[in-house]
Amino acid sequence: MTPTRYAFVKANWHSDIVDRALEGFCELIPASQVDVFDVPGAFEMPLLARDLASTGNYAAVACAALVVDGGIYRHDFVAQAVVDGLMRAGLDSGVPVLSVSLTPHHFQETPHHMAIYSEHFVTKGREAAQAALIIGKARAAVAA
Questions:
Q1: Which of 37, 93, 89, 95 is nearest to 65 (CA)?
Q2: Is 74 assigned a catalytic role?
Q3: Fewest C-beta atoms under 10 Å: which of 29, 52, 73, 98?
Q4: What is the pTM of this model?
């Protein structure tokens, strides 16, 4: 039996923007089929994604975060570690783990940037839902 539930993990840093990805995700996948989990930041997402994927309860796990360049090299390390960890969680568990993480180099907490990234997260959430549905169909076809 293929799971019909989806997990959505969101980082709390810049939650006013990141939460918008869930809105986009739920435009295609009903909110009643989505379990939502909050983590402190992007760095904590891969571990929880792996744990959720390993339960076998989810068709896919989507993870959303905004990793901003604060002017120090840590931004690059965090972004790479998150992407690598999410990919590993999916490969190790056999469940699609999708990244809805953005790493802008020129983010500032201005009304202009807040509006741009808030809207972009809706789009990215919608794209993650599309990816979850498409990969689910493709894997079902391969298994048949």
A1: 37
A2: yes
A3: 73
A4: 0.91
